[in-house]
Amino acid sequence: MLRKLIIFHISIFMMCSSLALADSHEGWSPLKDRLVKDGFNLEYVEAIFSATSVEYNSDIMARKMRVLLKRRFEPPAKKVAREKEFDERYVGPVLLAGAYAYLREHYDILVQIDKEYGVAPSVVVALLLVETKLGFTLGKAPAFNNLANMAASSDPLLFFDDLGYEKLEDNDLKWLKKRTKKKADWAYRELAALLTFSSANSINPAEIPGSPYGAFGICQFMPTTALSYAVDGDKDGQIDLFKREDALVSMANFMKKHGWKNSLSKAKKLKVIYRYNHSMVYARTIYEVAKQLDRIRSTFGPT
Fold first, then answer.
1. Hey, where are the domains in the chain?
2. Which helix (H) or strand (E) holds 1?
3. N or C: lower Cβ tally within 10 Å for the chain?
């Protein structure tokens, strides 16, 4: 395994060291220095940041802050209206039929996961449906690039002109600076975790597609979540969250470690699901999809 990792790191360096276009942004230097100070190999870090997919774009953080500013200035009544019971798209006939077909096709592995982790097939499939539409929507932007840009953009003055506000009141500007720094620090932790996870599993981190926030795989784990809960489901010596068995088992492991039991009350189930994605609309949507899948399965099988 050690020899495999050494070859992997050397191959990344050989492929990327000659590509310096993406490394021209001076803002990368403090970020790279911080990673090296935290124990990452200098040549490895330089190689990753030299990849052509790694480009500085301040609008990546600006988009996040625009959303948060909009919500900050939103009238209370609008905030309440936005908090719906659950997302009805996922219990519509098309997506629900697709989820049921997936459950039938992979029922054997889902039952095995339920026996080992105590997470019902309907719950695992519901998570997969909402996260990535059963693995078909994985995100297009490199997770590393998104996280690196957020980590390197801790000062809102880097992108203030892109926020759409000519000026902000002092208290709002103070809030923006604090919130941006907090988001940048969060992104750094996730970036470091992504490098650690990638190194341990012989993956080039610059090539991992992900969400705008850096979640990846068909289970959409954040890197810190992957480090803590990802499982080698097919026992091939490598965790690949783009592979069905690894992802499904990892999702069940996450739920189990956060207290899931199929016998829990609805309220307690919602609390566990909330840990997967901190939104009660999300939690209620997962619960509703799982309930509908169980209803369909009780009528049409499998049993």
1. 2-78+140-210, 87-138+217-300
2. none
3. C
Q: How far is CA 52 from the centre of its chain?
A: 22
Residue type, 165: Y
Q: What is the pLDDT of residues 109-135, one digit of tens each?
A: 999 999 999 999 999 999 999 999 999
Distance of alpha carbon 295 from alpha carbon 285, whole angstroms: 15
Q: What is the spatial distance between Cα 118 and Cα 189, in angstroms, rounded to a whole number?
A: 31
Residue 172, Cβ density class (10 Å: 0-12 exposed, 13-18 middle, ≥19 buried): middle
- pLDDT grade for 141, boundaries at 50, 70 and 90: confident
> In this prediction, what percent of the chain has a pLDDT beyond 90?
84
CB atoms inside a 10 Å sphere around CB 115: 8
Q: Which of 151, 2, 172, 163 is nearest to 72 (CA)?
A: 172
Whole-angstrom Cα distance, residue 126 to residue 294? Answer: 11
- What is this structure's pTM? 0.89
Token duo for residue 126: 């519901």
The residue count of the chain comes to 303
Over residues 270-281, the mean pLDDT reads: 97
Provide the phi-psi class of 137: left if phi over 0, else alpha when psi is between -120 and 50, else beta.
beta
Q: Is the dihedral of CA 9, 11, 14, 17 positive or negative?
A: negative
Tokens of 160: 């203030």
Is 87-138+217-300 a CATH 3.40.50.20 domain? Answer: no
According to DSSP, residue 221 is labeled: B
Q: Quick check: 209 and 216 in contact, CB under 8 A?
A: yes
